[in-house]
Amino acid sequence: MQPSDKALVPFVSVDNMMRLIHYIGAEDMLRGLAEYIEADFRRWELFDKTPRVASHSAEGVIELMPTSDGEVYGFKYVNGHPKNTKSGLQTVTAFGLLAKVATGYPVLLSEMTVLTAMRTAATSAMAARHLAPKGARTMAMIGNGAQSEFQCLAFKAICGIDKVRLYDIDPGATAKAARNLAGHGLQVTTCKSPEESMEGAQIITTCTADKQFATILTDNMVGSGVHINAIGGDCPGKTELAPGILKRSDIFVEYPPQTRVEGEIQQLDPDHPVTELWQVIAGTAPGRRSADQITLFDSVGFAIEDFSALRYVRDQLIGTAFHDDLDLLADPDDPRDLFGMLQRAGG
Ligand SMILES: NC(=O)c1ccc[n+]([C@@H]2O[C@H](COP(=O)([O-])OP(=O)(O)OC[C@H]3O[C@@H](n4cnc5c(N)ncnc54)[C@H](O)[C@@H]3O)[C@@H](O)[C@H]2O)c1
């Protein structure tokens, strides 16, 4: 039995997502994603917002991230399992969906492992455009795993970074990132310590994976005037920065009820002042105010960023062949005769 049009939902596989990125160009897509994310941060107040629903285990976490702008609903399924890479699996995998609020019918199902890397990098660079010191050209990139090259490219495409200094406790990861970044218009330096990676850097990105209160940056390593883009502290009991750094920084977050539980600020008092990034973008709160201030984007990843990324992909798919039609929704001739449809399929 052939499914009707009403049964079909466009599905973007990993293969098609990669084709779409190559078709658009990775840097153009990062810029496009940043524009969509920024546009949705500007209309932040009208979204349904809730901290993501997390299911924790000793090995990692599985999370659901829903939101809606009243017309379109979206959610992402994502995991975080730092030990996965040892058995040949990704630390982070994801997929997500958009649906029409008016009918509840899904309008897009997509892989989001690659898309999450793109949206995380686009969000980081978009935040840095508002917070990093003017004229920043050099970024320290600490943690050279799956996310790292995306971060480097986004900071080049969106913030004008032209030098990256790579460090990972695993030199193999640094060598991989340096290889991948060759030919992308960045001057790449591989470093033997986090201190070395931070020499001359105006932006410091930490993007490590370890399920503990890690200290990737100690207090004495961070001088005044830098912007810190902290990506890897995103779960209860999983942080990257010494508390002393947090106390010297102006801290910017996505959604405080989620970040207070998951972000670097879980190490601080629950009423420690933070600024919501959307307010900086909407012009109702200041971003960077002085050259010697330390700004910190305490990123954990919020549902609206995934919603924006799916919205961007949906718009870019129009007129392309980068999707399959998936027979996802039952569509009986009489909407109330679901059982009849099942019986006829057996005959
Ligand atoms: N904030 C967000 O929106 C967001 C989105 C995606 C991923 N993440 C987080 O970002 C982190 C990185 O993700 P990934 O997919 O690149 O993970 P990954 O496992 O592929 O890479 C992590 C890297 O960190 C390195 N590392 C671990 N401890 C270190 C240390 N002490 N010093 C230096 N390097 C160290 C590892 O060797 C590895 O190369 C994860 O913690 C993930 O949960 C956050």
TrEMBL record:
InterPro entries: NAD(P)-bd_dom_sf, ODC_Mu_crystall, ODC_N. SUPFAM superfamilies: NAD(P)-binding Rossmann-fold domains. Coiled coil: none annotated. It holds the Pfam family OCD_Mu_crystall. It comes from the Bacteria. PANTHER family: KETIMINE REDUCTASE MU-CRYSTALLIN. This is Ornithine cyclodeaminase. It comes from Seohaeicola nanhaiensis. The lineage of its organism: Bacteria, Pseudomonadati, Pseudomonadota, Alphaproteobacteria, Rhodobacterales.
